Amino acid sequence: MHPNSSGDSRGARGRLRRLACVGAFLVAGCALLTPSAGATGSSPEARTVDQDVQALKKELVDLNRDLFRLEEELLYPASTQVAVFLSVNLGTFFALDSVQLKLDGKDVANYLYTEREVEALHRGGVQKLYLGNLKAGEHELVAVFTGKGPHDRDYRRGTTVRFEKAVGAKYVELRITDRESSLQPEFAVRQWE
Amino acid sequence: MSSPLVRRCWALLAGAWFALAGGPAFAVRDEPPDPDLPPPSKIRDLDYGDVLFHFFQDDYFEALVRLEVSHALGRMPDHAAEAELLAGGLYLSLGLHGEATRRFESVLAGPVPQSVSDRAHFYLARIGFQRGYLEEAARSLGRIRGPLPGSLEPERRLLAANVLMAQGRYGEAAQSLERWTDGSDWTYYARFNLGVALVRTGETARGRQLLESVGAMPVRTEEQRALRDRANLALGFALLQERQPDPAAAALARVRLDGPFTNRALLGLGWAEADAARPERALVPWLELRERPVLEAAVQESLLAVPYAYAQLAANGQAADQYRHAVSAFAAETARLDESIAAIRGGGFLEAVLAAATDPAAKPDDADQAGWLWQLKQAPDAPHTRYLYQLFASHAFQEGLRNYRDLGIMQRNLERRAGSIEAFHEMVAARESESARRAPRKAEMMAGTDLDSLEARRAGLEARVAELVGARDVTALATPEEATQWRKLEVLVARTAALPPGTQRDALAERVRLLRGTLAWRLDADYKLRLSRLRASLAETDAALAEARRRRALVEQAGDLAPRSTEGFAERVRGIERRVERLQPAIDAAAAAQERLLADIAVRELEAQKARLASYATQAQFALAALYDGASAGGAR
Hints:
The complex is a heterodimer.
Chain A: H1 3-6, H2 9-31, H3 44-75, E1 81-88, E2 95-103, E3 106-112, H4 115-122, E4 127-133, E5 137-148, E6 154-165, E7 170-179, E8 184-192
Parallel strand pairs in A: 1-7
Antiparallel strand pairs in A: 1-4, 2-3, 2-5, 5-6, 7-8
Chain B: H1 2-16, H2 46-55, H3 60-72, H4 80-93, H5 97-109, H6 114-131, H7 134-142, H8 152-166, H9 170-178, H10 185-200, H11 204-215, H12 222-241, H13 245-253, H14 262-275, H15 279-290, H16 297-312, H17 316-345, H18 349-357, H19 389-393, H20 395-447, H21 451-471, H22 480-498, H23 503-636
């Protein structure tokens, strides 16, 4: 019913009152959107539970840290420890699918990569691909990389390194880089003591 | 009629009150921690790279554990400051504000590059804001000296604007936004927040202008669409408040028909049309809304708005039918609310919420990634939870729910750890057994190795060499055969000397002298070569002795360490076992407390919804009675 044509005064009054209500509501409605900082509204009980949970989480992090450390020290003591890492620097000429590792002729790791892991490597993450034990002396590591090379072709390349294991822990880094001159991937090895 | 109408208006508008309450009170974005990352080629400690490998996969708990191990073992000397900053960010991601603050402050305590200290100040400001410590947040923001890298800089600006707004300094917030023209998502969030704040404080023109800019922003992502919808919704209601129904309708019509704010926009659109004295057009959105599930406040209100519009159009018969329908729908909904309240009080409430909220497409390992990225993407539609839309949208409830979920993840983690402890016990036992097996062999070997005697012999040899070099005793370096020949010649010299003088003796003596001279000449000629060989041989003996000494020391050390270290391991395993046993019930107790807390909040919310429905039902019955009265009065006339 249109106010100008109906002549119904009750309807017009009703609308006016309703609109007054609209105004009152909007003040209240906007009050809900007033900026406020996150924790100011929580109850004391909620804060207590939150503090308990925080303390428990910290204890769990500490526990996992101690377990992780114990496991490593027990299973891979520094005197025999050898770790093989994998990193990617640029890596535009090679899309990594998998890596096989052989140590002294024995298969020790065969790793298939998810998209997420490859992305993490491209962003600067370094994967601890293998952790094991070796006696002091000379050893041979063979890594075989498979994936897609330039022009989306299947690509399989191996790299071999002979290294001397001394008394301390030995780190070997396999690094996939770009060889700009030939537009080919390069698989470099770096030894860390 | 006026009195029931006013009450009805209140009933309708009290529901619309919820129209803007559906989201967090403050538009914010949750971002993962952003460490001071070196470029990929600049990783100088492999263990830090290993932490980043897990961090970049959003596996924050694993990243943090590895970070703490490498930190404890001193394996990240070249990334110490960045690692501490990352630790702070990771603790923050787990909701550990206290520990995160401690870590950021620890970063600032040392000499660190400005890029690192700026980030630490930024995270401290973020924590301060989240905890409601606005002065501290403002102070930390003021200490940032340079622009932050990447998306942190616009986030810093948003945070600064939010802090100013939270302090009620809207003018300064507006000024800071005016200087900010990069067009990033963060700008739009800040404009939205400020626009709403300005409308509320009466600066409606400026507020509307900001909301309009967000409502017309270009969108590519779902997050941007949701923000644009929200801005148009807020703008529409702001314009309704100012009695500008047509621009209000235009703003509300820009809200998507299939988004999270659709229902509220449809309700507001109807009010805009009604305000413009077009009840027939108001019916269009309200009738659309009426067909939607009744669980949302906007839909509940449409059940009253539709008959109101019919009444405005003098279609009293249809209005009465719709009021009766509303009364019956409210009763049915109230019964379902009672059912839900009973279910929540019966326990298992949060498990049902989490089960309903789990993304079926998520990988199994995703389920155990506690962290701030975990959010309820949408309100679950489980029997326990179907009415709790507003609760899930609140930060406090989500935080509580996340705590509960994290506790479940922690409990599963502990169960796995408890399983591995048995294996650790076995490993330590195996090591002890192996050590015991080797002990006799080791003792035998040690007893049979007299390095001291070898050392004395080598020293004697060296003294002899020194002596012969001093005297240039070439015969000392003779071969055994030459030495025999030399001794025989010495005998011959003596015997010849004892012969009676004469030509025969002289001839013999001359021959012996020649032979002796020849041998002496050969020994003298080879002296240097022989001495050099002897010295080389002595050096080899030195090396062999040194190696023997080193190996013996290692064996001795291993003998000393083995029992002690094995005992150390055993004690460490026992200590961890005790911690697991203590933590498991503590986690259960915290989870139960968290569940009670959230269930109480949920029940209170459901009771409030029941009260609102009761109020709606009463209003509908009054309106129905008024319609009947009018009809009776008309009939009487």
